[in-house]
């Protein structure tokens, strides 16, 4: 799947809430402290500086979220280069209105 300019697909937090009714792979690329202060329950914390080492299934779509959408976009480009099908969450946690949980 080749795209010009290596653009990353993106969806809004509203679209993410719809997708969460099913099973999705959601990576939260914020720092561990930010993650502990509140995250989406299905999200796995893989900080941006460690995303290059992420090992997941290349056959499943990976959704990436951060605080505003900037770090997740960077993370999405890194993962895309590694062969993952990635979707960035626009607006990030700052626009998320669904439930969040604290801790790990």
Summarize, please:
It is built from four helices and five strands; from the N terminus they run βαβαββαβα.
Question: What key attributes describe this structure?
Answer:
Oxidized Rhodanese, domain 1; Rhodanese domain-containing protein; five-stranded parallel β-sheet; 104 residues; alpha/beta; 4 helices; Rhodanese-like_dom_sf
Explain this structure to me?
With 104 residues, this protein is α/β, with parallel strands linked by helices. The chain has one domain: 3-Layer(aba) Sandwich (Oxidized Rhodanese, domain 1), CATH 3.40.250.10. It contains four helices and five strands, in the order βαβαββαβα. The chain has a five-stranded parallel beta sheet. The chain starts with 8 loop residues before the first strand and ends in a 9-residue tail after the last helix. Residues 20-101 form the Rhodanese domain. This is Rhodanese domain-containing protein.
